[in-house]
Amino acid sequence: MVDNIGGSGSSNNEGIIKEQDRLLPIANVGRIMKQILPQNAKISKEAKETMQECVSEYISFVTSEASEKCRKERRKTVNGDDICWALATLGFDDYAEGMRRYLHRYRELEVDNNNNNNNNNNNQERGK
Known about the structure:
Order of helices and strands: EEHHHHH
Number of helices: 5
Helix content: 55-70%
Radius of gyration: 20 Å
Strand content: under 5%
Number of strands: 2
Structural class: mainly alpha
Strand order of the largest sheet: 1-2
C-alpha cells in the first residue's frame, strides 16, 4: 500500500511516501503497548496495526502544525517548543504540559552532561 499522508524519509520522485517510511515500526509500537498491559496479556496483530496507524498519523498531525508555524516564522528547524505549541494549539493541552516538563528536564540534563564532559576533558588535559 502506498500513501501520501504524513511522515518523512525516503520517497520516490513523485512525492509519494512508502507505507514503511510513513509508519512507526510495528515492533516498537507493540513493545510500547505491552509495557502498559499485564504481563500475561496478548495483543492481536490487528490491534498493533491499528495503533501503528493512529500514532503515526498523530505524529504527522502535530508535526505538520509545528512545521507550519516554523514556515510562517521563516525557520527551517522544528524544535521541542514548536511541538509543545502545536500540541496546545490542537487542543492537546494535557500532553503539551507534560511535554514542556519533559523538554525542560531534558535540557537541564543536556547542560549537566555537557558540563561533565567539559570537566572530564579539562582534567584529562591537565594530566598530560
